[in-house]
Amino acid sequence: xxxxxxxxxxxxxxxxxxxxxxxxxxxxxxxxxxxxxxxxxxxxxxxxxxxxxxxxxxxxxxxxxxxxxxxxxxxxxxxxxxxxxxxxxxxxxxxxxxxxxxxxxxxxxxxxxxxxxxxxxxxxxxxxxxxxxxxxxxxxxxxxxxxxxxxxxxxxxxxxxxxxxxxxxxxxxxxxxxxxxxxxxxxxxxxxxxxxxxxxxxxxxxxxxxxxxxxxxxxxxxxxxxxxxxxxxxxxxxxxxxxxxxxxxxxxxxxxxxxxxxxxxxxxxxxxxxxxxxxxxxxxxxxxxxxxxxxxxxxxxxxxxxxxxxxxxxxxxxxxxxxxxxxxxxxxxxxxxxxxxxxxxxxxxxxxxxxxxxxxxxxxxxxxxxxxxxxxxxxxxxxxxxxxxxxxxxxxxxxxxxxxxxxxxxxxxxxxxxxxxxxxxxxxxxxxxxxxxxxxxxxxxxxxxxxxxxxxxxxxxxxxxxxxxxxxxxxxxxxxxxxxxxxxxxxxxxxxxxxxxxxxxxxxxxxxxxxxxxxxxxxxxxxxxxxxxxxxxxxxxxxxxxxxxxxxxxxxxxxxx
Amino acid sequence: xxxxxxxxxxxxxxxxxxxxxxxxxxxxxxxxxxxxxxxxxxxxxxxxxxxxxxxxxxxxxxxxxxxxxxxxxxxxxxxxxxxxxxxxxxxxxxxxxxxxxxxxxxxxxxxxxxxxxxxxxxxxxxxxxxxxxxxxxxxxxxxxxxxxxxxxxxxxxxxxxxxxxxxxxxxxxxxxxxxxxxxxxxxxxxxxxxxxxxxxxxxxxxxxxxxxxxxxxxxxxxxxxxxxxxxxxxxxxxxxxxxxxxxxxxxxxxxxxxxxxxxxxxxxxxxxxxxxxxxxxxxxxxxxxxxxxxxxxxxxxxxxxxxxxxxxxxxxxxxxxxxxxxxxxxxxxxxxxxxxxxxxxxxxxxxxxxxxxxxxxxxxxxxxxxxxxxxxxxxxxxxxxxxxxxxxxxxxxxx
Amino acid sequence: xxxxxxxxxxxxxxxxxxxxxxxxxxxxxxxxxxxxxxxxxxxxxxxxxxxxxxxxxxxxxxxxxxxxxxxxxxxxxxxxxxxxxxxxxxxxxxxxxxxxxxxxxxxxxxxxxxxxxxxxxxxxxxxxxxxxxxxxxxxxxxxxxxxxxxxxxxxxxxxxxxxxxxxxxxxxxxxxxxxxxxxxxxxxxxxxxxxxxxxxxxxxxxxxxxxxxxxxxxxxxxxxxxxxxxxxxxxxxxxxxxxxxxxxxxxxxxxxxxxxxxxxxxxxxxxxxxxxxxxxxxxxxxxxxxx
Lengths: 561, 399, 291
Known about the structure:
The structure holds 3 protein chains of 3 kinds. Chain A is α/β, with parallel strands linked by helices. Chain A contains 23 helices and 12 strands.
């Protein structure tokens, strides 16, 4: 460890020790305030563990908090308190898994809606159970526990949540979440099982929130569903975390402290205005501080960083891939985008997939890469049916692609973009090994000078190269290039064509969707032409490009070569 | 040498100052945290806050409370608990440790009072819980010996109602009861106590459902209750649902011979809302309006606060404050423990008549009342002085 | 008879729900704004109707004449000044949805806080048109019938307007493909503002009508928003008839659960249905699959 890291660590320990000593120095009122600060710190940081990187705004905090509180209310006299807290955490994890499995597959916004009402749903279920089966509604907790003890437990939880957050941030899971937050489609195409990643984080976050609820419950003595499942808790946690900045581990606490103090002052003197002020704070965050206070501080202190280059390394590619489409069909309402298309690709081939706009080429690629599921027909890769597989599994099997509208992970550096491709494939690379390979790949596509530049700042051509590097990082057997050569000037086109040729030499099988006829002629062994969803020609470029049907499709009925 | 001298002098002065009970106290600082916003605000705004203000006005107008020969006026510190128990607990802590009040008055609502009981006890204050009715009361007294519970237990409430219904059998009341309760501490406790009591008295529950606190539409419940053809309809409800259920029952023409809604029925705004239709409606609470103390109280309440007192917990609130004052005067100081002891042992003159706490719980709590001729009379428990004969059957709703 | 009871009450309740959701369908489907403050504005309209009724003796039905244009203008202003900056800076539809959730979240607090300051925490109701109407032996309150009827007329009327007029087609184009709509000369921003304002006006109408029959308070908004969101998404974003059908289904389901199982599980059934639809038909009952 470096001296700087050591001194940072020592400062942390000192800080925690000082905080732990606080109860001996302050009166009960300030201790109560301390308890609030500690509990919201845990809640907001735990919330940001999941919602920060994935950008899924979870409004379910009150639900998990209430579950924890109720666990304590039910079991306080049956088990020792720490055991109840642990049990509450497990319960929170369990419920999060159930909720997550049902909803994390859906688009982000549906998740938000669902969590919006989740606290109310669980509230009703608990009420119903208590009313009809136990015939109580409130439960009493006569636990002999002082505010100081609660404070220390919360402090312990805070240390734990920060530690867990730090470890995750450095792990592959953390990278997976950042990729998901940036572009979920890309995440799936670098073989990240997005559902699992989100689920794990959601569950971890929920566990902490439930534990906090269990620890806090004895403060109120009397718990009923209204008290335990208070939606305002969810909303306040979101505001605190976003104010401080949910993208950084230390962000939420920067929002917790001012808001708890402000709310304390307001509760005492201007309780009516509390909600209005919360709303205004929130609007300020959304319009002027999208990255929160932490983001503001970072931008203010931003500087450039440099890093070293690495030597080029040859990346071997496996060969012998085989892709077959049999009578594949895809319709959107009344529009048949892919109509009964069959084709086969041999290993080592470069196949051109051409046709006028709207002929269904990108749809075909989307069917192969798993973005869409076909309505009929079969897709086989190396003899295995892949039509029903999700994108991340197809990526693992060895199919990689670029997108017509280039999709890079704008908030991450070029290096990290490529590392994302390396970290989740079937034979993953991580840490130093991944960094070395990533640098080599960047070099291969000519992006070595931009290794640490954020991808969002690259030029269009460079973004295309980056996307290619990320696709190559998967070490695929089949590469799908969707109009990768579009928009290049003649010199760049030449470089691009050479690059694609070199890929073939390494044993890659390539499907090229293109409009640039020069590229088709010079690169493709074979061409398949689509028009209005149907395949109308299949053969060597020279033959296909002079075919009557093809010319008619492109130029209209009157023209003939 | 000089420095040592100064230091000693300073130390001596400090010791003297600390040892002295500070500057002579002029006023009694009384604090309370009560719902001024949120769902509990309407209840608190009718029952609790006006009576606190009324009492402070009355006391200060008379020159203050006699504390050991010196008349001290009341200074108030108040906070809004926003209908949240968390805020209520925090508010009490603030009152005790920051504002350092001499006495604390209770918040509104059973749940809130249960929640603040431990923290009030922690700081040694007596806790006169008025707007709290719970079967937990005896246990609370055991744990918090300086807490006092003015509305008794929910079992008493259920028993009182069943007693009244039982007596009505002689007048022709059938045995079919439709019962609904709000899914909250209050509603659950009361319905839980009512079931065996009704069964023992020979009544049959033809409809027994509980509804969530957030219910906005009562037509399904009224329609179903109506379909069960009950002789009596009993709703253990809170102010919003009390109004909702009554309004819907009128609209849908649901006319059982006995119609009982719980909290809120005794509010004057209930009469204002439903006008002639309130005649014959039974509800939780009741008063004996025929005593001179009660009549004077109602008149005075309206004059000073501009609002009508409710016909159940309002006089009880005021009575609790009268008891507090008389206890202070009896003890002659603001010693919290002595005041609590005085309340435990004494008998006090209040607007409710003579009140003596038995095991910290007030006796003779009205639990069943009925609107008759524009006033809400107490019907039961019939053992309380002034219990009126019920009007039976309830006249049909007029549209 | 019980089955008929349930269906009738369910359809009427469903009509109310559908009306509440219509506005959000337009706001989300066309203007792409996930408006979390939707319910607060609806409640604000309910309070407006209540105030008009109690202070000025104006019946809620007449009050509609005032409330609807006011709500339209207010919502248009909200779109123009609060939401347009978000629209301009959003890079994708998903980004706009996320941003609009957050911004309207802030609005939710401000409106709710304002209502609490103005009206306190208690429950209100106009209790207008509460007379009973007998339908085939079943008693129904007249105000609920009016609400359901209004819902059906409004959705059918809007549906016809959207499918048979030029402006309507333009709106549908914006809902389906704003990028392409721009290319054929449609002023997407103006139409989105219009759709948002129209949605707000519809929600205000809903608020006025429900003020007659339901109990509401300054904090009821969240519940309404949740139901509206669930129905709008279940019916397929932007699909008016879909919202109507989804609202009716939800109404019938809630009544059925309340009668046959337990009134305490009504919200549970909301979520069960919501999840079921999303998992089986992610684009909603009548929605088109997202591109």
